[in-house]
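Memo to structure team: turn this sequence into structure tokens by end of day. - J.P.
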Amino acid sequence: MSTLQNKLATGRFTLTVELDPPKSADAVKTITEAKQLKERIDAVNIADCPMANLRMSPIALSHVIQADVGLETIFHLTCRDRNIIGLQAELLGAAALGVHNILALTGDHPQQGDHPQAKAVFETDSTGLIELAAKLNNSQDIMGNELQKGTSFFIGTAVNPGAEDLDKELEKLSAKITAGARFVQTQPVYDLEIAKRFMEKVKNLPIYVLMGVLPLKSHKMALYLHEKVPGITIPPVIMDRMAAGGKAAGLEIAAELVRGTKNIAHGVHIMPLNDIQTVVALTDQL
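Reply from structure team:
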């Protein structure tokens, strides 16, 4: 059982932070960021070529961070770039490197990224990927062939508590739990009533929930998220505070959301958009 899994199983409120890998063969910047966070959080997420932009392998970087920093990692794996053989091979390699927490995602289409001509695979989706990982945990490949040694992945996925069709979102989540998911990290939530409504819906499901917190940097950013990103609702009172206080207000709001979430969910997943100093300042407030 992984350290993160142990903490959640024993009721500890956990903090995770998302980091983007570098577009480089040099991991020093990300390692330095991880070192700043080591004593402040429980684990870092390492994205898998986010927004379909080329970045360092999340599995390799997760291994380096765990070995060099001593901070637990959650590696993202998407279905965009690999068929089911490649996905399983990556998972077996991750297990051999001691990287056991996975966030299974379908992934963004290459047309959105810096290699728009690249061919998308998508032989399966996030639910299928969860099933692959769960099969490997049971010492079998997806075809039912026995492995000499199985894996021990703590399998996570994403969910949107603010989805317009919450029943449909919960159906998808239920299918992912059946496939083998044991924790979720959610899309950003700015209204604790939405978080409470979601937790009430999932309270009887065998899943740990880390509620997403994305610190706002400006009123313009708040407007964009509210108007352009499906499933994100920002209440008028927060809009007003951002208009009056800017980034400082955004930090205060993020701290309030984390504190409020302690009585609702199992943890918080912070998305700092590559601004590690915001995480430092936020954890100082906490």
